[in-house]
Task: structure prediction
Amino acid sequence: MSLPKNSHHLFFIVLTTCLLLTPGQGYGSTTLDIFYSNDVSGQTEPCG
Amino acid sequence: MGGLSKKSSLLKGLATSADILKLDAGTLFFDEKLTGQPRRLPQAIITASAMVDAYNLMGYDAIAIGRQDLSAGLHALQTLATRASFPFLSANLVDTNGSLLFTPFTLIERAGIRIALIGLTGQTNLPGAYSDTVKISPWQHVLPQIVAKISTKSDLVVILSNLSALENREIAEQMADVHLIFQSGVSKQNMRPQLINNTLISQAGHDGRYQGQLTVHWTASQKWQQGETSRLTLQKEYDRLGWMINRVRKKGGPQVVYKDNGANLNAFLKKRARYHELEAEIKKMAQDEKMNTPDPATYSNHFHPLLPSVKDDAAIIRLLKESRQRANKMRRQVAETKRLNGYIGSSACRSCHDPMYLAWSQTAHATSYKTLQDRDQNNNLNCVYCHVTGLDDSTAYLAPSMAGNLRAVGCEACHGPGKEHAANPNLAPPSMTPHPALCINCHTPQRDDNFNYMLDKAKIH
Result:
């Protein structure tokens, strides 16, 4: 069976739509990186 | 604090976009040992000031105030706060009239998300000297009002909490509008994020040896993907079994690998059945998660160790060095003079115990003071008493005035003061073998996690 002549265009449109819809409805275009630490008193600096 | 230069360099490497937040859950500056030890105060404040400068350089967004941070007094902490280019947060630290002493919360926008950061200080006993002037309100008295006030102005509510793990759990159970809690605490272990209702609670180990990174994809649903934690636990088991099954398959399959051992073959078949069960279970859980919350928020979490191989940030190193020099100079200026009774120094021991002295002189104990001098730490009250003879935690302030022949971990550090023994060798015998507890005073796991009493004792003589 042969594919219709412009099938690759159709495939491209479907793929693009999928890619656009896949991310959730986020607030921005990227994710947020939160760096966190729990330094109980930095007074414990190395001595020597 | 020594990890700050590595922390800075690690953060620079990890922070690849502008959409980042840098937070600390508190208990950053002081510890409770400071209370009742006024001699330690000037050094501690110089060190804390350098930490603020370092956090300024690293571009921190906010920190919470832990109750221990009051150990140097309210005024010292407020002075540090004015030095910082980021807020010190506490929504429940108040004066005796109930007025707030620090910024309760701050609003920041990142990645298009309006983020509210709230600080909470631990409720447990305040350092004694300040308990009459500073009060800590229970979270129940302040948090609901703040969350109600900011709910229309924020999309993501984050608490930097110095409260106990139990209290943080209560917040998660009672307040669905709190989305993230970063807790400080005494746990040495990193804690994988735990999802309770709609609140994710995370904690990095307490001694700052790890940097936590939570990558969040926050969505308009403002709901975390439920069940993800338990699904990930199953996924781990599934991956482990899959690896084992694959290994057996590569060796020719179970009938070949276990041909002489029926019990092992049965055990393998059970594991393979479990593997297939898990596969179906994980698939179903993932489907359910999608059905329950359309468009849920997701996260991933990593703890990055501050290994020795992480390079140091030169700017932070420079800053810390200046701070050490400043502290060293200050300590020399306030040095007190007092003779240490009963100590005579290792060179006096040599006249009778030459082989022992020579063996000792080749060890790190003999140069322990010099290692401090090389780093401008030779008058650091937190360091020096472990690098000399005859001082302890409570008498470290005498270091600048002590005799030169005691500036090493000498014979008397392990065997006790030698003056009487030198005068009457038979009547006043020294302690022959140091008790392990004596060594562990200084070779703590934090300072020397490879210490082995039996092996290391033999290195001396």
Remarks:
- Confidence is low (pLDDT under 50) at residues 15-24 of chain A.
- Chain A has one helix and one strand.
- Strands of chain A lie at 32-37.
- The first helix of chain A runs from residue 7 to 21.
